[in-house]
Design brief:
4-stranded mixed sheet; 221 residues; single chain; alpha+beta; 53% helix
Length: 221
C-alpha cells in the first residue's frame, strides 16, 4: 500500500491526496511534523518538506511531480488533457496556485493563523494577514473570469488545475478565510468539486485547537 507523509491543511499534500483518491489508489496517511526535522524524515526527503509519497518501491517528493507521476502510471481517470495546448494550460494554472496564490494568499493567511501556532513560532503578523485578505479577492475574481468562459478552470473537463485550486481554497475555508459570496460561479465550482468522492477524507480532517466552521463539510453550503 502507498504511504503519504503529510500535514492535513497543507494545500500541496491535499493536492496529492485528491489525485490519489480520484485514481482510487489506496494510501496510508502519516502525519509528519516536518518542521521538527526528524532524522528519519530527512532521510526520506532531505528538503525537509511534505508531501512525501512511498509508492512502487520509490520515495517521491514535490507535489506536482508526484501528481504527474500518478497521471503517467495511472492515466485513468485522466487529470491532464491529451492535447499539448490543454496540458500547458493545466500546468500554467497549477503553477499559478502553487506559486502566486500560495505566496500572496495561503502563506499570508493559513501559515500566519495556523502554522505559526502549531509550530510554536508566535502570533500572526497582522500586516501579512491584511495583505492575504486583500490578495484573495483578486484571485477569486480571476477564477470567476476563467469560469465565466469555461466549465472548469482549465477547460471543459476537470483537471489537476481544479485540484490545485481546491486544495488551497479548502485549506483556507477550514479557517473561514474565503468569501464565497464574492462570486456565484466560483462558489458553484467549489460545491461541484467538493461533492466528489475524492474530497470526502479531506472534509473529515480535524486540526487540534482549530475546529472547522459549520459549513466546512456541508456539501450544500
Amino acid at each position: 500500500m502507498a504511504k503519504l507523509y503529510h500535514v492535513p491543511l497543507s494545500p500541496f499534500c491535499r493536492k496529492v491526496r485528491l489525485c490519489l483518491a480520484e485514481k482510487r489508489i489506496e494510501c496510508e496517511l502519516v502525519e509528519e511534523r516536518y518542521w521538527e526535522a526528524a532524522p528519519d524524515f530527512l532521510r526520506r526527503n532531505p528538503a525537509g518538506k511534505v508531501p512525501v509519497l512511498r509508492l512502487d518501491g520509490m520515495t517521491l517528493s514535490e507535489s506536482t511531480p508526484i501528481c504527474e507521476y500518478l497521471e503517467d502510471k495511472h492515466p485513468e481517470p485522466a487529470l491532464l488533457p491529451k492535447a499539448h495546448e490543454g496540458r500547458y494550460e493545466v500546468r500554467r494554472l497549477v503553477a499559478w496556485f502553487d506559486d502566486k496564490f500560495h505566496h500572496e494568499v495561503t502563506s499570508k493567511l493559513l501559515y500566519e493563523r495556523v502554522n505559526k501556532k502549531v509550530m510554536g513560532k508566535g502570533f500572526p503578523d497582522s500586516t501579512n494577514v491584511k495583505a492575504g485578505a486583500k490578495a484573495i479577492k483578486f484571485h477569486l475574481d480571476y477564477m470567476a473570469w476563467l469560469l465565466d468562459r469555461r466549465r472548469w478552470l482549465a477547460g471543459d473537463v476537470m483537471t489537476l488545475a481544479d485540484f490545485a485550486a481546491a486544495a488551497h481554497l479548502s485549506s483556507l475555508d477550514y479557517i473561514s478565510d474565503v468569501d464565497w459570496n464574492r462570486s456565484d460561479v466560483v462558489k458553484d465550482w467549489y460545491a461541484k468539486i467538493k461533492s466528489r468522492p475524492a474530497f470526502r477524507n479531506i472534509l473529515a480532517d480535524q486540526v487540534p485547537g482549530f475546529p472547522p466552521p459549520a459549513h466546512y463539510a456541508d456539501l450544500d453550503f
